[in-house]
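Need residues for this backbone.
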């Protein structure tokens, strides 16, 4: 499986992180009813703009499987859910809800 990780400002806004275009180390795990994302971002200038919009971020995972349609996971980031540690160069995002969908299963109806 290939996975692309995105952090975006709102739904249609700009992407701050897109591992499909610029790979960076990240991990994610579900803990109870929330998902915790840890991203290594060491340059202060790369994180400053993201942190300005930390109350309006969405996280996406696009999971591509061989011989299967791409699965998209959309995570909603709540208030006070984005933190950055300068010491570790580590961004942590906690999401409390998600939607999982497969775009190929949706069709436009006219």
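Answer:
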């Amino acid at each position: 499986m290939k996975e692309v990780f995105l952090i975006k400002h709102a739904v249609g806004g700009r992407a701050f992180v897109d591992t499909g275009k610029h790979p960076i180390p990240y991990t994610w795990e579900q803990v109870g009813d929330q998902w915790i994302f840890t991203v290594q971002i060491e340059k202060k200038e790369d994180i400053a703009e993201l942190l300005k919009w930390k109350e309006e971020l969405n996280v996406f995972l696009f999971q591509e499987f061989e011989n299967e349609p791409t699965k998209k996971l959309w995570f909603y980031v709540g208030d006070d859910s984005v933190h950055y540690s300068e010491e570790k160069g580590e961004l942590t995002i906690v999401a409390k809800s998600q939607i999982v969908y497969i775009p190929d299963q949706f069709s436009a109806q006219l």
